[in-house]
Amino acid sequence: MGRLIWHHLSRCISLTASFYAVWAGLWGIFFRKFFWDFLDGILRAPGGLQPSPKVAVFITIIVKLPIIQIVTMVLGFIMIALEYPLPIINGTAVHRNFSLRVVILILQGIVAALFYQLTVMNASDIISALPSRFEAARSSGDLFFFPSEVNKHEEIGVEWEIRLCTALQKKQLASAPAGDAGVALSNQPTDSEASEKPDPFAPPYVPNLHVGDLRDVSTGTEYAILLNKFSVVPHHFLLVTKEYLSQTSPLLPHDLVQTYLLLLAARKASKTYLAFYNCGSNSGASQAHKHIQFIEVEDGPPIERLARATKLEVADKPFSMTSMPYANHVYRLPTLSNDASHEQIEQAVFLPFLSLLDLVISTVRHAQDYPSGTPSYNVILTLEHMYLIPRRWESYTLGESGVTLSVNSLGFAGMLMVKSEPERQALKQEKIGKVLRGVGLESVHELQVAGTSMEAMDEIGG
Known about the structure:
Elements: H1 2-30, E1 42-44, E2 48-50, H2 56-64, H3 67-83, H4 93-96, H5 98-112, H6 123-140, E3 144-145, E4 149-155, E5 158-164, E6 183-184, H7 191-195, E7 210-215, E8 222-227, E9 230-231, E10 237-241, H8 253-268, E11 273-279, E12 291-296, H9 302-309, E13 329-332, H10 342-366, E14 376-381, E15 385-391, E16 395-398, E17 403-406, H11 409-413, E18 415-418, H12 421-430, H13 432-439, H14 445-461
Parallel strand pairs: 3-9, 5-18
Antiparallel strand pairs: 1-2, 4-5, 6-16, 7-8, 8-10, 10-12, 11-12, 11-14, 13-15, 14-15, 16-17
Helix pairs in contact: 1-3, 1-5, 3-5, 6-8, 8-10
Transmembrane segments: 12-35, 55-86, 98-118
GO molecular function: ATP binding; ATP:ADP adenylyltransferase activity
Domain DUF7727: 1-120
């Protein structure tokens, strides 16, 4: 009886392993990666991990041609046929040969271990999993949620949201040294400093904070979806590159596509999310590992209402909200369906991003005494508009109070954070427009438009 039980258990384990091998091989055909490419690999910046030439043969038979994946599936099917078994081989010498089973299982295990078997979620899976994962992380103590209250403040045609979160006073944050003209220097670590500190976005991830993984189908780029460990709003999550890339690097086409897919998935679930990216040392970024953040908003950010009301003289061109006292570059995006393809999304968002980035660089070039180094800017993305805001400083010192207010993308989206009631009053007294102008740049939109018009006339005249 005991032998029968052990035999049946072994058969079930063998069948389970073989079914998994077939399934893993199938996914491995679509998402091709040599699992051991990190051995003796070279880490390049930019570019990420480059496999060693010594493993070129495995790259060929796994990535270029999915031979190993197909072999894994074939071995899996053979084992299923032996263990189930197929009527044509039931009772034959092949079916009774246990040595053959052992050899096939060993080979199956070896080839399956060569390629990466990634459990990939799609954007809709991520959005639907957020509520339960957020509560689980909060209950376990892996995520800290700080309650807050929001007050509206009308100024320069925008109903700004000032969020008061007194609990943040208990969270130890390093203060930035005060700079000139009411600004403060950046707190973000440089790449050299970041390399000396642990990377909070590097695997292994805290299980309760790790919602899942995404993979771009066109490039194979992998992302982790992580909950924000210190949340002020529920379901605040991050899209993080699995390979280390600097937060000073611009968004690439696949970054924008994955971001937009998540926004579309949220809309499909009757939710509205805002995505933002703090790029550069003076953008308000707190971590050096490339990450895009998402928060849920009811009807879009406050600045969105102003952008919606802006009448465009020319469609499909960048524009500026001229009532704002700081440089801002905006693009009205085309409306895409929830089932839009990767190609449609890339075409809709990447060229606008490049045109806005050109304007950011142009604005920086017009700015005198701009800090040395790579330009900093904020990216705000909704399904309706893309905003790029060039930055000069990371923080602003509020008048006589001496309170240093850090400003990131959300500040320019119309949502600012304070840690005390006196700080909120100081912000109102200082005026939000003045604060944002202090950390931003002067608008040269008219000069840029004039320059574009002159270039167009030159082309026509030529």
